Amino acid sequence: MWDTKPGRRPPSPSALLPSIVEGYDSMPTNEGWMTTSEAAEALHLSLGTVQNAIKNGTLQAVKLSRVWFITPEALEEYRRAHAGRQGWDKRREPGYEPDPARKARRARLKARRQQQHETSAPADDTLTREE
User: Fold this and answer.
1) The pLDDT of residue 45 is above 80
2) What CATH number did the domain enclosing 21 receive?
């Protein structure tokens, strides 16, 4: 891909950018691109939420070295699709099917809590006092 003669350093990420992303010939920050922390601040989300969105593919980004860059267009597309949406909005959509594994886990946790509550409650005969 590049010249790897001894004593020569590989090219900088900005030099590789055209081969990574077609149509871009300079560092993304020069064109209004944002880092994940800047995008999180712009979206009023946590950094972890933005990183998860990139990992899940719901927010398009380009990684150079160890830094993710997000275009303003991708940020606005994500905002239109996801901003202000809560989990119940998803459940209201027609054709929504709840995850059976999550539903089963919730039922198991509820049964466990109820069982713990029953075993930790004092028996009725210990509360009555003889006068």
Assistant:
1) yes
2) 1.10.1660
